Amino acid sequence: MKALVLIIALSSIASGYNDRPAPELLAKVGQYAYFYNPNFLLPATELEAYCTSYGFLPAAIPDAAQNQQIYAALYSKVEPFSVAAIGLKFNNETFAWLDGFTKYEYNNARNDTDTDGDQLYGIILHTDGDLGGKWTPVSAKKILRYALCEKLS
């Protein structure tokens, strides 16, 4: 019994995010399994550390079909006009997925916003019109309720 308590305590300390729920399975799309946290409540700058603490990677969205499936899967689970952190970073005039595997070939970033320097992105959720499913820059300080992680198979 003492060994079990010690293991639980050590894993909680190691994760650093034990006060946040583990991501829940959202959808499987091709080789990607997507997970989301409906109570992330951290800035997008914490997404990579959060996902990896649970053995996942920050979510990459390689094409329009996957973007639509993720958007549809999240639509009924989130509040209107919300944003979920995804693993997309803009740096030195280029976009890159933080998972280290997915090439940035599909661009769904908003083109009506200015981006200066390093910028992380989120996916716009549960909204009507052209913005639903678009990727939008998020402030490094803005607390996001939702986060998306992935696991490749």
How is this structure best described in words?
This protein is α+β, with helices and mostly antiparallel strands and 153 residues long. The protein has one domain: Roll (Mannose-Binding Protein A, Chain A), CATH 3.10.100.10. The chain has 3 helices and 10 strands. The chain is globular and about 35 Å long. Mean pLDDT is 86; it is low at 2-15.
Continuous helix count: 3
* CATH structural class: Alpha Beta
- Helicity level: 10-25%
H/E series, N to C? HEEEHEHEEEEEE
Which CATH architecture is right? Answer: Roll
Mean pLDDT across every amino acid position: 86
CATH fold category name: Mannose-Binding Protein A, Chain A
CATH homologous superfamily annotation: Mannose-Binding Protein A, subunit A
* Strand content bin: 25-35%
Can you tag this structure with a few keywords?
single chain; 153 residues; alpha+beta; Mannose-Binding Protein A, Chain A; 10 strands; 33% strand; disordered N terminus
Secondary structure: elements and pairs:
Layout: H1 2-15, E1 24-29, E2 32-37, E3 42-43, H2 47-53, E4 57-58, H3 64-75, E5 82-91, E6 94-97, E7 119-125, E8 135-138, E9 143-144, E10 146-152
Question: What's the quick description here?
Answer:
The chain is an alpha+beta fold. Helices cover 22% and strands 33% of the residues.
